[in-house]
């Protein structure tokens, strides 16, 4: 775990120039069931849209919600487009989200996902949010949690964007460990149907609409190895009943390959990029995928 924490600390250097705004992060307590004692900060822009969208933005290991707010562009985009951002923070020592315990991998099973869902529900109530416009994004540990949340709560989220993650359920352990080396190293390989079944098992019996997914991964990722990207694509295309053959492929930038699978799954492979891939412009791509670039 130390290795991933050390590597992800570099994300603290990804600080964008702050935009002039009177809006600030506000810490909220007593927001609902919170079995793992997560902290909550909310960013409500000065000019919020009527019935605003809610974005759950989940930090990386070693970080916090305020760190993620300072280091990514989502706050500036919220100022521009009027959505509200919910920033959770882990309080356990490693500052990594629980994406491995049996409790975390079941809807309302306990641990971090229950607290995260409480945060979203609080924001919907408090800010008059639109329940049809709720989204989740995250980097590394936060990307893994993004996959977990859309599996656990497909009726809550309309879409997710995972930056350098692994498939939902890939990090599963039964011995109390929070680190799964086999998964991290890209050695947990399954068929699309098997991955789809794992995601579906998080909420047994659910037959409703599934969230769209945007996936990002660098080919030189040495923390959560690149094979995990293909396994994520397999998982979410299967969940949506799609072929693993893309319906379109293009290169939005010279080292980016984007593959689309209908309008449900969008996957960006970044040639020569390592684990620290949250560069300028990527947050905007996620916001556009969500449809949040419209008030």
TrEMBL record:
Segment forming the signal sequence: 1-22
Ranges in coiled-coil conformation: none
InterPro entries cross-referenced by the UniProt entry: AB_hydrolase_fold (IPR029058), Esterase_phb (IPR010126), Plant_Biomass_Hydrol_Est (IPR050955)
Name of one Pfam family that matches: Esterase_PHB
Top-level taxon in the UniProt lineage: Bacteria
Keywords recorded for this protein, A-Z: Hydrolase, Signal
Nucleus in keyword set: no
Protein name: PHB depolymerase family esterase
Native species: Lentzea indica
Lineage, uppermost ranks: Bacteria, Bacillati, Actinomycetota, Actinomycetes, Pseudonocardiales
């Amino acid at each position: 775990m130390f290795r991933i924490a050390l590597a992800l600390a570099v994300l603290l250097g990804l600080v964008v120039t702050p935009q002039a705004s009177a809006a600030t992060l506000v810490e909220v307590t007593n927001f609902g069931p919170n079995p793992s004692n997560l902290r909550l900060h909310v960013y409500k822009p000065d000019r919020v849209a009527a019935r605003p969208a809610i974005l759950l933005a989940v930090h990386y290991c070693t970080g916090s919600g305020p760190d993620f707010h300072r280091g990514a562009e989502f706050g500036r985009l919220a100022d521009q487009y009027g959505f509200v951002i919910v920033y959770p923070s882990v309080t356990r020592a490693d500052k990594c989200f629980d994406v491995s315990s049996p409790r975390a991998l079941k809807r309302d099973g306990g641990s971090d996902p229950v607290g995260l869902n409480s945060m979203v529900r609080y924001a919907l109530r408090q800010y008059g949010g639109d329940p049809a416009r709720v989204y989740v994004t995250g980097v590394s540990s936060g990307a893994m949690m993004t996959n977990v949340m859309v599996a656990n709560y497909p009726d809550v989220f309309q879409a997710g964007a995972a930056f350098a993650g692994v498939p939902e359920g890939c990090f599963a352990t039964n011995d109390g460990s929070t680190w799964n080396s086999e998964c991290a190293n890209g050695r947990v390989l399954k068929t699309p149907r098997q991955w789809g079944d794992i995601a579906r098992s998080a909420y047994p019996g659910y037959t409703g609409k599934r969230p769209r997914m945007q996936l990002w991964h660098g080919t030189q990722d040495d923390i959560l190895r690149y094979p995990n990207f293909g396994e994520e694509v397999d998982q979410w295309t299967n969940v949506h009943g799609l072929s693993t053959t893309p319906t379109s492929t293009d290169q939005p930038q010279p080292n980016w390959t984007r593959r689309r699978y209908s309008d449900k799954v969008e996957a960006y492979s970044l040639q020569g990029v390592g684990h620290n891939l949250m560069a300028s412009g990527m947050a905007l791509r996620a916001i556009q995928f969500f449809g949040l670039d419209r008030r």
